[in-house]
Every structure is written in structure tokens, then in C-alpha cells.
Amino acid sequence: MLHATSQWRLGGWIMFKIMFVVYEREGIDRDEALRYWREQHGPLASKVPGLRYYAQTHALSSADGGSAPYLGSAEMAFDSQGAFVEATASPEFDAVLKDVVNFADPDNVPTAVVQDYVFVD
């Protein structure tokens, strides 16, 4: 059954969800960028106040087996848009933004508030 939510549901809570597409930075080895993102940036992002869910999806290859067109995507979810706005004013969120340059192109991180359409649950 298809259902749409204006916010994202996790464990019974309705959440405000943001998605980021992450492109690698020139001059860094792809495997090193993915390792840094997972081992350094992920734990840093996990400290953002009010964060209820954080996941990274690392791109392994393109659909035809070639090189992946980007590093991957990340999702952050908060209880509400207000909680997200509060989080963006925190020193922890500022540290996350400043850390992006260590593994990704900080000038190319498309970001959007997203809405899921669930077909199979």
C-alpha cells in the first residue's frame, strides 16, 4: 500500500528529514574519502543536538558497474523543522559543516527536505 508522509516516520515518531548528496573532493583518494566519512565525519555528525536518525549510504558503483557518480548520500532526521533549525545554530552542526572539506566537495552538496512514498513496508 502506498502512503505518503510530509515528515518521516521512525519507530512511531513523525520526523523532519533532510537528505544530502555527497560528491568527492578533488585530490583525495575515493576509498580514503569514504573511510573518513564513515569513521570520522559520521561520529561527529552523530553529536548534533536533537538528531534522531543519521545514516550514510555509500555509492559502490554506477548501476552499469562503472565508477559511482558520487560518494553517496546522507540522511538526518529531527523531531520537527524547528528542532532542525535549532540544531543548525549549534557548535556541533558548525563543526560538521567545517569537516565536510576533509572528504567531500563543500561547494557541491545538494540538500533537500524530503518526503518518502512507501510502497513496501
From TrEMBL:
**Which InterPro entries does the entry link to?**
Dimeric_a/b-barrel, EthD_dom
- Gene3D superfamilies in the cross-refs: 3.30.70.100
User: What start and end residues bound the annotated signal peptide?
Assistant: none
Molecular function terms, GO-annotated: oxidoreductase activity
Domain EthD, first and last residues per copy: 25-107
Q: Which domain of life is it from?
A: Bacteria
Q: Mind telling me what this protein is named?
A: EthD domain-containing protein
Species for this entry: Pseudonocardia sp. ENV478
